Automatic annotation (TrEMBL):
<keyword id="KW-0812">Transmembrane</keyword>
<dbReference type="Pfam" id="PF17064">
    <property type="entry name" value="QVR"/>
</dbReference>
<dbReference type="GO" id="GO:0032222">
    <property type="term" value="P:regulation of synaptic transmission, cholinergic"/>
</dbReference>
<dbReference type="GO" id="GO:0030431">
    <property type="term" value="P:sleep"/>
</dbReference>
<keyword id="KW-0732">Signal</keyword>
<dbReference type="InterPro" id="IPR031424">
    <property type="entry name" value="QVR-like"/>
</dbReference>
<keyword id="KW-0472">Membrane</keyword>
<dbReference type="InterPro" id="IPR050975">
    <property type="entry name" value="Sleep_regulator"/>
</dbReference>
<dbReference type="GO" id="GO:0098552">
    <property type="term" value="C:side of membrane"/>
</dbReference>
<feature type="transmembrane region" description="Helical">
    <location>
        <begin position="137"/>
        <end position="156"/>
    </location>
</feature>
<protein>
    <submittedName>
        <fullName>Uncharacterized protein</fullName>
    </submittedName>
</protein>
<keyword id="KW-0336">GPI-anchor</keyword>
<feature type="signal peptide">
    <location>
        <begin position="1"/>
        <end position="20"/>
    </location>
</feature>
<dbReference type="InterPro" id="IPR045860">
    <property type="entry name" value="Snake_toxin-like_sf"/>
</dbReference>
<keyword id="KW-0325">Glycoprotein</keyword>
<keyword id="KW-1133">Transmembrane helix</keyword>
<keyword id="KW-0449">Lipoprotein</keyword>
Length: 161
C-alpha cells in the first residue's frame, strides 16, 4: 500500500469516526427485559445514539420493598413523560425531585387507565455523559478515543517501516 493511499484511508476513517462520535451512545432497556436488571448483560441490549447534542445517559432505579425496576435511556427520551427529574444533572446519582402531582388521580372510569404513580418508595437517578455506554453499570468503560489514538499510532508506525 502506498503512503498516499494509506494517508487517504486514514483521513476517511477519522472523518467517519469523528462524525460517529458526535453524539453520545447509551443503552436503552428496562429491567423487565431479560439481562437489563442487576447484573447487566450489555451484549443483549441495543445502544441508541441520543438525539440531542448535549444529551446525558440515564439510569433510573425505582424501588419498593425488595422489588427494583431499572430503566436505562437517554435523558431527552425521558423528559417528555417524567416529571421527577432532579434539577442537578451532573455526573453521579441523586434522589428524584419531589413531584407535586405524584399520587394524584385523574378521574378515569376505566381502572386500568389510572395514572397514580406513588407505587415506588424511592427513586434514584444516575446521570453520566463522559463516556459512551456509561449507563451500563457502576464500572466505568475505557475511552474510545484512547483506543483510536493507539490504533492510529500503530498504523502510522507500520507504514513508516
Amino acid at each position: 500500500m502506498t503512503r498516499s493511499k494509506a494517508f487517504l484511508s486514514l483521513v476517511i476513517f477519522s472523518t467517519i469516526l469523528v462524525h460517529a462520535q458526535s453524539y453520545l451512545l447509551c443503552y436503552q432497556c428496562v429491567s423487565t427485559h431479560p439481562g437489563c436488571g442487576t447484573p447487566f448483560k450489555w451484549l443483549w441490549h441495543k445502544t441508541v445514539s441520543c438525539p440531542e447534542e448535549d444529551d446525558i445517559c440515564v439510569k433510573v432505579i425505582e424501588k419498593v420493598g425488595a422489588e427494583e425496576r431499572i430503566t436505562r435511556d437517554c435523558l431527552s427520551s425521558l423528559k417528555g413523560f417524567r416529571t421527577d427529574i432532579p434539577a442537578d444533572k451532573y455526573e453521579g446519582c441523586r434522589k428524584s425531585s419531589l413531584d407535586v402531582k405524584l399520587g394524584h388521580y385523574v378521574n378515569n372510569s376505566i381502572p386500568e387507565l389510572d395514572i397514580k404513580r406513588d407505587y415506588y418508595d424511592s427513586t434514584t437517578w444516575c446521570f453520566c455523559y463522559f463516556d459512551h455506554w456509561c449507563n451500563s453499570a457502576n464500572i466505568s468503560t475505557s475511552s474510545n478515543l484512547l483506543i483510536v489514538l493507539i490504533s492510529i499510532f500503530f498504523f502510522v508506525r507500520n507504514i513508516d517501516q
